[in-house]
Amino acid sequence: MMKTCLVELTVYPNTLPLASGYLQAYAQQDPDVARDFDFAIHAVEVNTPLETLVSDLLAQEADVYGLSCYLWNMRRMKELCDELVRLRPDAYVVLGGPQVMHHAAEYVPPSARNVLVCNGEGEKPFTALLREVAGERNFHEVPGVSFWDDDGELVTTPQPDRIKDLDEIPSPFAAGVFDGGEYTFAVVETNRGCPYRCSYCYWGAATNDKVHRWELDRVKSDLSWISEHGVESIFVADANWGALPRDVELTRHLVECKQRNGYPSMVAIQAAKNRPDRVTEITEILVEGGMLTSQPVSLQTTSPQALELVQRANIKESTYVELQVKLREKKISSYTELIWPLPGETLASYQEGIGKLCASGADAVVSYPQLLLRNTPMYRQQEELGIVTVRVDDPVAEADVVVGTKWVTREDFQEGAWFYYAVISIYNARAGFYVARLLDRQGVCSYTDFLRAAAHYFKTRTDTEICRFFADSVATLGNYDINNIGKVLHYVLHSHRGEMDELLEGFLRERGWLDLPGVRAAFELDLLARPYVYRESVVAPSVPLTHIRLVEQDRYTFVAELPPEAAALLELPDLPEGADLGVVRLRVDHVGRRKMPYPKHRSLDYNAGYCQVMMNRMRDIVPSWTVLPAVHHAA
């Protein structure tokens, strides 16, 4: 028997190796491959030291190593490939995945005759490769691969057709591939393909294919396996969850599995943008089942010019606003996703788009850095679009961040990053939520201009820990780090809460806004209303309160007396009307839902990951307000 070892380096620990499972299950249905090969899967965290990886893989004594290569693990995979070639020159190494396909010359030197690159969907080429390794070893007969021949020429064989009947791929769950493993996180597919052609995305633009799906009962069986084996979290990797009517049925099945087995406890989805009603129904099912607390809304940009250039069509603005209203009525959190900077987007359009989202009542705005992905139309349009990238200094990943386009200079890019840090701290984290709303509604300052001014002020205050973190992140492309936003939340809502109080007061004072009617009261309302991201004791603000009076405080709550104009900003349904009420007495309850206590023994990165999740489900952590009997003070 020969042996093949499939290798996955994952972002999260104990991740179920789905890609390797598909490769093994598909290959083993070939009787010759099943006869000639034993299979092993080696799936570990990407930050595993190289020496450990090499030692473990050499111990496998495999004849074929299959490496799944992605943006987040490519540097480590390249190092691993080089070491395997050096130490096991008699073994074959196959590189597959969107980061390497069609880029064999970049990753494989002509001297490495035993390394092949798979240029597309992997099941057919990998099975054909194993047949050749066990047979004549004529790799010209393997479809969809690149390799160096004995004459030093790079050979690329014709690609096979994509698999349209996905049930040709046996279920690795049913085949027992994953039996015996302990998994806490699983990526699952119920279909493949995407009908859209967004130029920055590999999903649809590269495949340009209709959606092909696995048979419904087979998918349900796979999901049941995941539940029965205690997998805590699932990411549904379909490009547009909710696009198909059956996605509602599958969602109900997931909830039924949890009710029966206790797992999974959390589900993440990529929501279909053109089916807001169906996605809202799915979200509501998951929320009621205790498996999801937030709905993503993937706009990517609000700029018509950018949307046209990246070949994307968004939901209508009126539909977006209606969706936000429905989610608020159902008390379901949401977060609106953007990418900065897409081609066609300018600094002004990016800032103004976020300002409109804030004015429309978005729960949170999440802006991701634009990464230039291999094998996408945008990758081929770099010169045409004026795309400038910087590779992130990361020991394991190979991420190229877009820092300039024909519409955005490097300085604009950095200004946009500063602006977004103002959005995270002031809007998402609610540090200046009610002040910004008041100034916008009074016509004094729009959300866009408020956030621009805050970003400018933050740049002048790098004497503070919070602003120094902003500056360092902008200078080093720190926002590429998946935990970067969470770190901001940790600072603003926990470790440097008092510093944020003083920063906001200094900013408002510098602008002269604290002297305007109602602004001081709105600012003090923000001091009390800013949520606590952990379940912890509340603390009085670090700046004096002159318009709001704290009359009681216990572990999780304040009782405060507010002037009517400040109380009105809360828009509470049971708030008495009229300006002659004197003061309004309210209880501010910061207990929230699904919060965890602050884990002092955990690292900042661990806590930041938690904070990031909590920002996306903001309605779980914002305080609740209860109107108490009116109080009339003697003159």
From TrEMBL:
<dbReference type="Pfam" id="PF04055">
    <property type="entry name" value="Radical_SAM"/>
</dbReference>
<dbReference type="InterPro" id="IPR023404">
    <property type="entry name" value="rSAM_horseshoe"/>
</dbReference>
<protein>
    <submittedName>
        <fullName>Radical SAM protein</fullName>
    </submittedName>
</protein>
<keyword id="KW-0411">Iron-sulfur</keyword>
<dbReference type="InterPro" id="IPR006158">
    <property type="entry name" value="Cobalamin-bd"/>
</dbReference>
<dbReference type="GO" id="GO:0031419">
    <property type="term" value="F:cobalamin binding"/>
</dbReference>
<dbReference type="InterPro" id="IPR051198">
    <property type="entry name" value="BchE-like"/>
</dbReference>
<dbReference type="InterPro" id="IPR058240">
    <property type="entry name" value="rSAM_sf"/>
</dbReference>
<dbReference type="InterPro" id="IPR034466">
    <property type="entry name" value="Methyltransferase_Class_B"/>
</dbReference>
<dbReference type="GO" id="GO:0003824">
    <property type="term" value="F:catalytic activity"/>
</dbReference>
<dbReference type="GO" id="GO:0005829">
    <property type="term" value="C:cytosol"/>
</dbReference>
<dbReference type="GO" id="GO:0051539">
    <property type="term" value="F:4 iron, 4 sulfur cluster binding"/>
</dbReference>
<feature type="domain" description="B12-binding">
    <location>
        <begin position="3"/>
        <end position="140"/>
    </location>
</feature>
<keyword id="KW-0479">Metal-binding</keyword>
<dbReference type="Pfam" id="PF02310">
    <property type="entry name" value="B12-binding"/>
</dbReference>
<dbReference type="InterPro" id="IPR036724">
    <property type="entry name" value="Cobalamin-bd_sf"/>
</dbReference>
<dbReference type="GO" id="GO:0046872">
    <property type="term" value="F:metal ion binding"/>
</dbReference>
<dbReference type="InterPro" id="IPR006638">
    <property type="entry name" value="Elp3/MiaA/NifB-like_rSAM"/>
</dbReference>
<keyword id="KW-0949">S-adenosyl-L-methionine</keyword>
<keyword id="KW-0408">Iron</keyword>
<dbReference type="InterPro" id="IPR007197">
    <property type="entry name" value="rSAM"/>
</dbReference>
